[in-house]
Amino acid sequence: MQTFMPQDPAQQKGIKLESDHLADLSPTGKSWFLGIGINQYHDFPSLNNAVKDVLDLSQLLQEEYDLLPEHTLTILDEAATRRNIIVTLDQLQHKIGPQDKLLIYYSGHGHLNKETGKGYWIPTDAEVSNTADYIRNSTIREYIETFRSLHTLLISDSCFSGTLFVRGASRSLEALHELAGIPSRWAICSGRHDEAVYDGVPGENSPFAESIMDTLRWNRNSALNVAKLVDRVIEQTRSNYEQLPEGNPLYGVGHKGGQYLFLKKGSLEDEWAGTQKAGTVAAYLQYLQNNPDGEHADEAREFILSIGTQIRSQTAAAPKKTPAKRPSKPKAKPAPKSKLLAESTLKRLRKAFQDLQQRTNSDAFVIIQEEKSGKFVQFAGGKGQEIFFDLPTINWEEDQKALAVQVLKPFGIELEEMQLGSRKKPRTDPDMIHFNHIVGQDIDLALELISRVMLDVYQFDAKVKLDLIEN
User: Fold this and answer.
1) Residue 278 and residue 287: Cα distance in Å, rounded?
2) CA nearest 130: which of 19, 224, 234?
3) Where is the Peptidase C14 caspase domain (predicted)?
């Protein structure tokens, strides 16, 4: 790529106001996209490629990533007035859900007031002499704070866009995190807070936009996190142009350590194909967990509901049996620890319950009986309280780890206020865990499906048993 150093002020995205006394300019659920691109201004020099950048990026995200046309909004040229931009941001506040992610891309002129340090976006209808027509970067930050989205990523290709960041915050604090489930607020800007940036050769993309799209096109993984995107954009842009992009979390507006992920479209279709091929409850639950509003989410729910109907039918058809009185067990010498559940089995169980905690949305107590050995492993989980487990080969006091058993969100099952029987009282029946309160419905169905998940995912042939104590 040849270095392009424009000399025409119309090819730079910063506006120099006489009142600023600027020195010479020297050389970041559902997937939503809002693109604002302005080539034509009423009172400012025109730009070459702002509109093209927005359209090319939105097309790339629709063709290769998880952006759908119905979730794509663009405001271009004459439509990009201050009023229209603000109204659109207001409307997005009501459309975006708590599991959605939002990408806002602005390409246009920017302005820095040297006396106040304030940065601005310049709408198409702004007058040079009236900064009241501009949109403050602080206003954009306020909108980002109010969006209910899980992830919000702002990309601003304008001069002085680095003023979006709170000075002193370091990207290194969060750059290595790959936490898709934790809320995040990030921004990527084409230059530092006091930098002018370049629009590029007419008919092409700006250097900054080109580096973003190159990174997205070259990505061969199923997902690309924003930290990796930032690193590639900085490397490519800096090596060819005298400007330095910047990418950081936006602190003070809801960032909690997560990262925006660009998900490849092929990976979503591959995931659905793999789900259908597996044909298990576990696979469909995992698909719903990853894609609650995905293209095939309704089909996944229908599959799980059909399994539930089968279980209900089988349960209703089966003759009711009077439970036989449990024979008293002869006292026996405790088996040596080597005869109890193998450590590999215990590790598998721990992993199983940690994964189940992430798959669904409620807490429960269950116990599991390994069919081959007949040994019981007792797990306890609670909502709003300490969660612990009891294993025959583990010291209770040393291993109070937080493990929760989850049941099925698609069925609206809720189990709460459950506590393990007092450890101070001897248990007459050590094979059972007791509960003092349960609120919910379809308990048998939940336990059956948990058993199926255990078998499907971990090949652990288990029975899940529940013993209720009436208050």
Assistant:
1) 11
2) 19
3) 36-246
For 257, the token pair is 């350590």
How far apart (Å, rounded) are the C-alpha atoms in residues 36 and 14?
Answer: 16
Task: Please provide residue 270's backbone torsions phi and psi, each rounded to the nearest 5 degrees.
Answer: -65, -40
Four-residue CA torsion sign, 93, 99, 100, 102: positive
Q: Per residue in 275-323, pLDDT tens?
A: 888 887 667 776 776 676 677 888 887 887 676 566 556 555 555 555 5
Q: Which of 259, 239, 278, 114 is nearest to 185 (CA)?
A: 259
Residues 6+ apart with CB under 8 A from 80: 36, 37, 38, 108, 123, 124
* Alpha-carbon dihedral angle through residues 231, 232, 237, 238, given to the nearest 10 degrees: 50
> Who contacts 398 (Cβ-Cβ below 8 Å, separation ≥6)?
none
Query: Are the C-beta atoms of residues 74 and 35 closer than 8 Å to each other?
Result: yes
Q: What is the DSSP string of 405-435?
A: B---GGGT----S--PPPTTSPPS-TT--EE
The arithmetic mean of pLDDT across residues 19-43, rounded, is 67
Q: How far apart are CA 134 and CA 110, in angstroms?
A: 9
Distance CA 122, CA 14 (A): 10
Which residue do the tokens 């119905």 mark?
70
DSSP 8-state class, residue 78: G
Tokens found for residue 10 = 């119309």
> How many beta carbons lie within 10 A of that of residue 137, not counting itself?
27
Residue burial 139-167, b: 16+ Cβ < 10 Å; e: rest: ebbebbeebbbbbbbbbbbbbbbbbbbee
Q: Which class for 34: exposed (0-12), middle (13-18), buried (19 or more C-beta within 10 A)?
A: buried
| 91: Cβ contacts below 8 Å, ≥ 6 apart | none
CB atoms inside a 10 Å sphere around CB 363: 22
pLDDT, residue 289, reads 64
